[in-house]
Design a protein that fits this description.
Layout: E1 5-11, E2 41-46, E3 60-62, E4 82-87, E5 90-94, E6 100-102, E7 109-113, E8 144-151, E9 157-161, H1 167-174, E10 192-196, E11 199-203, H2 218-222, E12 230-236, H3 242-256, E13 264-270, H4 277-286, E14 292-294, H5 300-311
Parallel strand pairs: 1-3, 2-4, 9-11, 9-12, 12-13, 13-14
Antiparallel strand pairs: 1-8, 2-7, 5-6, 5-8, 10-11
Bound molecules: guanosine-5'-triphosphate and magnesium ion.
Magnesium ion (MG) binds near residues 167, 187 and 188.
Length: about 300
C-alpha cells in the first residue's frame, strides 16, 4: 500500500547507567565503570517514494540504549545508532514544537535525535575526601520526538484528468512503469511514478467533480500535484464534451489550491485513434490558444514525439 502520511515517535537511546562497584578486599576502592552512550537516531534520505510503507503500523522507531557500566572499571557498550529511511520530498513536523524539516534531494543522513550520555560509574567519584563513593550517575535519556511525516511526490510532470482518460496507459508507454489499466473509472487507487529519461512523471487517481471536497479518491492525492513542475492534462478524444471534462478537473485543482492552476500545462488529447480527423480538429479548436498535443497509445509516432517533448 502507498502511504503518504503517518505519525510516529522517533527516539534516541538512553545512556547506560554508571556502575556502583568495589574492588574485592583487600583492595577496597570503587571500580564501577561508566555507562555507554545511547545510540543516535538518524534520518536517511532515500529516493523511493514507496518507502513509508515499511513504517505502516509502527508507532516507535528507536536507537539502542547504552549498556550499564561494570565492575573493574569496565565501560558499558554504546548503544547502536539507528537509521530511519524516509523519502525525498517528505515533510517532517515535530508535533510538540511545530518545527518542520523538509527532506531534499542530496540530503544524505541527518542526525535527528541525539543519544543520551552514559552515567559515570562510582570509580570517577573517588576523591581524597570520599574514597568509597556509593553512588553513580544514571544515564541521560535520549532525545525523543513525536512527528508527523507527510510526503509530497516530487515529479517533473503530474498527469491529471478525469477517470478513464488514459493517464496510466500513457505513463506505461512513456516510462517503464507498470501501472494498472482498466476500462472503468478509478482503476488507479494510489499514485504511480515513472521516469522518462531524466524526467519523473507522476500518475494519480482520476479526479471528478467534488474531488477537492472529498469525492472519489482525489483529495487524498491532490497534494502530490503541489510539488510537480508541470501538469499533463489528459482529455479523451471520444468524450462527449472535452472542454467540460477539462474545466471540471481545472475547477477541482483550483478549489484545492489556486496555485495549482498557475503551473505550466500541456493538454493531451488521448485516445486519438477513437476520433476521426474532423472531430480531432474540432476538439483542438475548443482549447484555442492552449498548448495541445494529440496522442494515442496505439500510435507509436505520437508516443515518441511526446517523449521527446517531455524530455526536453
Ligand atoms: N483506444 C484507446 N484506448 C485507450 C488509450 N489509452 C487508454 N485507453 C483505454 O482507456 C481505458 C482507461 O485507461 P487508463 O489508463 O486506466 O485510464 P486512467 O486515466 O489511468 O483511469 P483512472 O486510473 O481510473 O483514473 C483503458 O481501457 C485503456 O485501455 C488509447 O490511446 N486508445
Ligand atoms: Mg489510472
Amino acid at each position: 500500500m502507498f502511504i503518504d502520511e503517518l505519525e510516529i515517535t522517533l527516539k534516541a537511546g538512553h545512556g547506560g547507567a554508571g556502575k556502583v562497584s568495589f574492588y574485592r578486599p583487600p583492595m577496597r576502592g570503587p571500580d564501577g565503570g561508566n555507562g555507554g552512550k545511547g545510540g543516535d537516531l538518524y534520518i536517511k534520505v532515500v529516493d523511493d517514494p514507496g518507502i513509508l510503507a515499511r513504517l505502516s503500523g509502527k508507532k516507535l522507531v528507536e536507537a539502542q540504549n547504552g549498556v550499564m557500566g561494570q565492575g573493574n572499571r569496565k565501560f558499558g557498550l554504546d548503544g547502536q545508532d539507528k537509521d530511519i529511511l524516509l523519502p525525498v520530498g517528505a515533510l517532517i513536523k515535530d508535533l510538540n514544537t511545530g518545527e518542520e524539516l523538509e527532506l531534499k534531494k542530496g540530503d544524505d543522513r541527518i542526525l535527528f535525535c541525539k543519544g543520551g550520555l552514559g552515567g559515570r560509574g562510582n570509580y570517577e567519584f573517588k576523591s581524597s575526601r570520599n574514597t568509597t563513593p556509593e553512588y553513580a550517575q544514571s544515564g541521560l535519556p535520549g532525545e525523543e520526538k513525536a512527528v508527523s511525516i507527510t510526503l509530497r511526490l516530487i515529479a517533473d510532470y503530474g498527469l491529471v484528468g478525469l477517470p478513464n482518460s488514459g493517464k496510466s496507459s500513457l505513463l506505461n508507454e512513456l516510462t517503464s512503469a507498470q501501472a494498472k489499466i482498466g476500462d472503468y473509472p478509478f482503476t488507479t487507487l494510489e499514485p504511480n511514478l515513472g521516469a522518462c529519461g531524466k524526467k519523473i512523471i507522476a500518475d494519480i487517481p482520476g479526479l471528478i467533480e467534488g474531488a477537492s471536497s472529498g469525492k472519489g479518491l482525489g483529495v487524498n492525492f491532490l497534494k502530490h500535484i503541489e510539488k510537480v513542475q508541470s501538469l499533463l492534462h489528459t482529455v479523451a478524444a471520444d468524450s462527449q464534451d472535452p472542454l467540460q471534462d477539462y474545466e471540471t478537473v481545472r475547477n477541482e485543482l483550483k478549489s484545492y489550491n489556486p496555485e495549482l492552476i498557475k503551473k505550466s500545462e500541456l493538454i493531451l488529447i488521448t485516445k486519438t485513434d477513437l476520433g476521426d480527423k474532423n472531430r480531432l480538429k474540432e476538439i483542438k479548436k475548443l482549447f484555442k490558444k492552449k498548448k495541445v498535443v494529440e496522442v494515442s497509445i496505439y500510435d507509436y509516432d505520437s508516443i515518441e514525439k511526446l517523449k521527446d517533448l517531455l524530455r526536453s
